[in-house]
């Protein structure tokens, strides 16, 4: 009798993805039976899913494993990033219920979509085949398009969803075309095989098909991490999307973009590092400078943080340009810290905001410091961390990135980085000026602080201050997780 | 006795005070005594050290001159340590910090009526930061405290300030931050270059200073340090934040700014700048001397033209700190001791002057020179102190500033006579604007009726203590100079 040889499949490397997919599908079913005023339960259930997935992650630390014919891998690098994703999604879920209840679009589909987005991000981090990475990116993107436009009744949210979809689809096209050309030039989509091919055929860099493929992939990834000049979608999408989703998008998918970008650039084209670095420092300088300069005169705080998030991608690109252990570990550390500080800030924005995406201007924070001293203090901590002041995680992260750049000889890039950082302080201070130094235009309403949001803020404050004071543990983890 | 982590206590006691304010946040009556209690406890500890420490031997494991020493691992991956040490210089600066903090609390006792808890919280937080700056010997730890002390001052000026308080607060913050960020890069540069050369990657000052950097980048690195310190100092072309910050700051903010924050720049140059880059620093001596002298003359000139008392005192600060810079630039034992002594003197004198201007402002709600006159007749005690500190500021012999300026000039005459000769004019010029200040405020006939009650018991006691310190340093500076003798000799390499 003829038997079909079924290859032994090892699910261990994608265990978290499997668990989250199952949870997402179960949630879709359960959603039907949960009355709309109790959709929060779906949130709690998805948190359970995230925690379970988290447990399956921990065991894999330090035990590299690849499966599915080498198209996914479980290494420290992917585990570190998956940790960031779980955290990002978990914190965003914590601030979602209060927001969506207020906006009266408390739909249960939110949570499964978030989980699917997480699965996509995880595949991007652990994919070692261009196809797997692309698959992950598509799963993520499609979920994000819906999430950005989730507030159906709000015009800006609709605009954000549509804009994101159009530009995102466009950028995906670039990426896919780049992958196709790379495949055409090298005959493989496995990043390791591409690296082998490149090292065996040194002249490959002269092959225009390969070079264009590489560039197009860089463009595609730059869209995803919102690096200038491919950042145009960011402000509108971040401003229009529901605030918790903005929080999520600014931290999670950006980190996923970096994960995939780094794996492709560092593993597949190590011998072309010089060429990559030239491309990357231009991106870094543009991204930091454009992000910071435009953020300087933004009145809408979500928009301001959108530009600031562009600038922060620029700082991470400084570490990427350096390409050494410090620089890349710096990116890992920075992405984690950024998740804490940025989502923390967005949690406060959710609290201060009012129905219909109102009260989102910097001026609306006048008097916040006197009215809600504790929450304002938390906001100040997040803003100082974003500004890179010690003793916060933001400072240690920048320190790490810039020392990587200096060590690799990019002193001038580090100087541009710190000057940018100094300029950025202005717009973070502006929020604090309003919070503490201006009298409120109208009285602050009594603000509802649900336990979920409070927990999110506490996690964020701890996540910003603890690594700022005793960073040794996280630094070691980041160092163990670099690809080099 | 060194079994207690005294330095850690010095740094974190005020911070503990911050936390203790939280439970009584909205009760003004409870906030002030608690905050003052912590500040006084800190002062008692610092005072006790001032009395006992000079006789102490070098602490185990510490380089010569450091009688208190704490060393613990912090971020081992980068070679960053929790490294604190106290020698004579840190001792004087630490004692000054503890003292001025109490003064700052006392002057704002009545003046601050809104958000009192936050005010005292920030003052205590700042005390922690400044104390840390004076005690940290690891570059990253130093940088951390250096930045931490910025934040409370930003809020002090921005919340309780006058006039264009927000503009001034932001200007102060951005100006100093831009300088210090470049210093951060230089710190990383020192770490990498030193590590590559010696194989030990460390941020610890004693190790770094043992093998000074002979790399071609050394002048650039020193330049970055110098820029950060010059902004804090403030030296001539980068001083423009100071008049604004001082004028718009509340009294407590001005006192701390003048008496303490400016000192951190000079201290940083003495403690880190010169020992890390002895060669490069020599190359910068002419530049530093010229900037210092220009600053002395320019500031005196501008001060004369001011119509706002506070602005006038602020510009006088720039001049006085120019003398400190001049003494450091000459790097001779006499001038350097003079500079450090002058830092203490300036802290006491200018702190007192700002307190006095604050008292006048509190009473009459104006700081315009033209609005005053006849204060001597109305409030003789206040006027007496005003005259005393104004004269001290002008460098009258027998008062504290004279001793510092004299030592600086005596030292500088040996190394760069030309600079000293020009700077000598800088001793005369303050007399001109000080006489104008005193004449217009105290002795001029009363130009408009002023409600001017004399000093209260609290104010009088405060001013009397400041005056006592000023006079005793002026008459008998030897105890302080004795404390400085060993560290200055070690720094300048003239130890026997």
From TrEMBL, chain A:
It catalyses: a quinone + NADH + 5 H(+)(in) = a quinol + NAD(+) + 4 H(+)(out). GO terms for molecular function: NADH dehydrogenase (quinone) (non-electrogenic) activity; NADH dehydrogenase (ubiquinone) activity; quinone binding. It comes from the Bacteria. Residues 128-421 form the NADH:quinone oxidoreductase/Mrp antiporter transmembrane domain. One of its GO terms (cellular component) is plasma membrane. It is an enzyme of class 7 (translocase). Pfam families: Proton_antipo_M. It is a multi-pass membrane protein. It is found in: Cell membrane; Endomembrane system; Membrane. Its EC number is 7.1.1.-. The chain crosses the membrane at residues 14-34, 41-65, 77-95, 107-125, 162-183, 203-223, 255-273, 279-297, 331-353, 374-397, 409-429, 449-474. Keywords: Cell membrane, Membrane, NAD, Quinone, Translocase, Transmembrane, Transmembrane helix, Transport, Ubiquinone. GO terms for biological process: ATP synthesis coupled electron transport. NDH-1 shuttles electrons from NADH, via FMN and iron-sulfur (Fe-S) centers, to quinones in the respiratory chain. The immediate electron acceptor for the enzyme in this species is believed to be ubiquinone. Couples the redox reaction to proton translocation (for every two electrons transferred, four hydrogen ions are translocated across the cytoplasmic membrane), and thus conserves the redox energy in a proton gradient. Belongs to the complex I subunit 2 family. NDH-1 is composed of 14 different subunits. Subunits NuoA, H, J, K, L, M, N constitute the membrane sector of the complex. This is NADH-quinone oxidoreductase subunit N. It comes from Geobacter hydrogenophilus.
From TrEMBL, chain B:
The keyword Acetylation does not apply. Coiled coil: none annotated. GO terms for cellular component: endomembrane system; membrane. GO terms for biological process: ATP synthesis coupled electron transport; electron transport coupled proton transport. The chain crosses the membrane at residues 6-26, 33-51, 88-107, 119-137, 143-160, 172-193, 213-231, 252-274, 286-305, 312-331, 343-361, 382-400, 406-434, 455-475. It comes from the Bacteria. Signal peptide: none annotated. It is a multi-pass membrane protein. This is NADH dehydrogenase subunit M.
């Amino acid at each position: 009798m003829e038997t079909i040889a079924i290859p032994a499949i090892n699910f261990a490397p994608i265990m978290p993805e499997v668990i989250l997919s199952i949870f997402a599908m179960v949630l879709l079913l359960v959603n039907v039976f949960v009355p709309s005023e109790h959709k929060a339960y779906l949130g709690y259930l998805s948190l359970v899913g995230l925690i379970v997935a988290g447990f399956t992650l921990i065991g894999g630390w330090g035990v590299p494993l690849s499966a599915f014919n080498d198209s996914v891998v479980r290494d420290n690098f992917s585990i570190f990033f998956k940790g960031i994703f779980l955290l990002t999604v978990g914190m965003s879920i914590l601030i979602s219920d209060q927001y969506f209840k207020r906006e009266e679009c408390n739909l249960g589909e939110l949570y499964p979509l978030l989980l699917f987005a997480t699965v996509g991000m995880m595949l991007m981090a652990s994919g070692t085949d261009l196809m797997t990475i692309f698959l992950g990116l598509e799963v993520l993107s499609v979920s994000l398009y819906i999430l950005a436009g989730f507030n159906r009744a709000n015009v800006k949210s609709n605009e954000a969803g549509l804009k994101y979809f159009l530009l995102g689809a466009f950028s995906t096209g670039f990426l896919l075309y780049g992958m196709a050309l790379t495949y055409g030039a090298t005959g493989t989509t496995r990043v390791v095989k591409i690296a082998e091919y490149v090292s065996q055929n040194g002249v490959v860099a002269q092959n225009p098909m390969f070079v264009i493929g590489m560039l197009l992939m860089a463009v595609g990834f730059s869209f995803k991490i919102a690096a200038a000049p491919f950042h145009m979608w960011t402000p509108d999408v971040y401003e229009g999307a529901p605030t918790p989703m903005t929080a999520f998008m600014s931290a999670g998918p950006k980190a996923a973009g970096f994960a995939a970008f780094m794996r492709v650039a560092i593993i597949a084209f190590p011998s072309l590092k010089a060429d990559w670095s030239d491309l990357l420092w231009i991106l870094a300088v543009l991204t930091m400078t454009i992000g910071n300069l435009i953020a300087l005169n933004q009145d809408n705080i979500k928009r301001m943080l959108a530009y600031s998030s562009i600038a922060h991608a620029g700082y991470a690109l400084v570490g990427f340009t350096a390409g050494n252990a410090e620089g890349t570990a710096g990116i890992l550390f920075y992405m984690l810290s950024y998740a804490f500080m940025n989502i923390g800030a967005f949690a406060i924005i959710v609290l201060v905001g009012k129905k219909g995406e109102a009260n989102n201007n910097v001026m609306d924070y006048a008097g916040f410091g006197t009215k809600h001293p504790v929450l304002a203090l938390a906001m100040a901590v997040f803003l100082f961390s974003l500004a890179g002041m010690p003793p916060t995680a933001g400072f240690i992260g920048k320190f790490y990135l810039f020392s990587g750049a200096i060590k690799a000889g990019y002193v001038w890039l580090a100087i541009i980085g710190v000057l940018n950082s100094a300029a950025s302080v202005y717009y973070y201070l502006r929020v604090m000026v309003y919070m503490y130094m201006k009298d409120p235009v109208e009285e602050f309403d009594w603000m509802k602080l649900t336990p979920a949001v409070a927990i999110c803020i506490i996690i964020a404050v701890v996540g910003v201050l603890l690594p700022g004071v005793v960073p040794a543990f996280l630094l070691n983890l980041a160092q163990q997780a670099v690809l080099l | 006795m060194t079994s207690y982590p005294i330095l850690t206590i010095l740094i974190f006691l005020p911070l503990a005070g911050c936390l203790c304010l939280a439970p009584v946040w909205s009760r003004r009556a409870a906030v002030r005594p608690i905050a003052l209690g912590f500040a006084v406890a800190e002062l008692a500890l610092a005072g006790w050290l001032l009395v006992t420490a000079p006789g102490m031997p070098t602490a185990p494991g510490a380089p010569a001159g450091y009688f208190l020493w704490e060393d613990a691992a912090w971020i081992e991956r980068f070679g960053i340590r929790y490294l604190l040490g106290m020698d004579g210089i840190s001792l004087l600066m630490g004692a000054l910090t503890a003292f001025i903090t109490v003064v700052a609390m006392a002057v704002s006792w009545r003046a601050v009526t809104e958000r009192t808890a936050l005010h005292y919280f920030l003052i205590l937080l700042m005390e922690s930061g400044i104390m840390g700056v004076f005690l940290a010997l690891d570059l990253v730890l130093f940088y951390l405290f250096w930045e931490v002390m910025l934040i409370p001052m930003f809020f002090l000026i921005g919340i309780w300030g006058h006039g264009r308080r927000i503009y001034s607060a932001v200007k102060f913050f951005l100006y100093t931050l831009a300088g210090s960020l470049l210093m951060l890069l230089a710190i990383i540069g020192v770490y990498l270059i030193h590590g590559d050369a010696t194989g030990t990657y460390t941020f610890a000052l004693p190790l770094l200073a043992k093998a000074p950097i002979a790399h071609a980048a050394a002048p650039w690195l020193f330049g970055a340090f110098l820029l950060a310190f010059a902004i804090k100092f403030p030296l001539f072309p980068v001083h423009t934040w100071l008049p604004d910050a001082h004028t718009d700051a509340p009294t407590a903010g001005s006192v701390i700014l003048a008496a303490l924050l400016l000192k951190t720049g000079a201290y940083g140059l003495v403690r880190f700048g010169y020992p890390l880059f002895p060669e490069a620093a020599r190359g910068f001596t002419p530049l530093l001397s010229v900037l210092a002298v220009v600053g002395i003359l320019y500031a005196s000139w501008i001060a004369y033209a001011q119509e706002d008392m506070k602005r006038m005192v602020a510009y006088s600060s720039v001049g006085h700190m120019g003398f400190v810079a001049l003494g450091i630039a000459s790097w001779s034992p006499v001038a350097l001791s003079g500079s450090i002594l002058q830092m203490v003197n300036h802290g006491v004198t200018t702190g007192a002057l700002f307190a006095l201007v604050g008292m006048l402002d509190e009473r009459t709600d104006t700081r315009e020179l033209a609005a005053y006159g006849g204060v001597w007749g109305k409030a003789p005690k206040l006027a007496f102190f005003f005259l005393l500190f104004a004269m001290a500021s002008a460098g009258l012999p027998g008062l504290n500033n004279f001793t510092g300026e004299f030592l600086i000039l005596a030292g500088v005459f040996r190394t760069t006579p030309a600079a000293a000769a020009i700077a000598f004019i800088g001793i005369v010029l303050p007399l001109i604007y000080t006489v104008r200040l005193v004449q217009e405020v105290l002795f001029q006939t009363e130009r408009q009726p002023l409600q001017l009650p004399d000093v209260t018991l609290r104010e009088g006691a405060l001013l009397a203590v400041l005056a006592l310190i000023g006079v005793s340093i002026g008459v008998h500076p030897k105890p302080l100079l004795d404390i400085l003798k060993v560290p200055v000799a070690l720094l300048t390499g003239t130890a026997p």
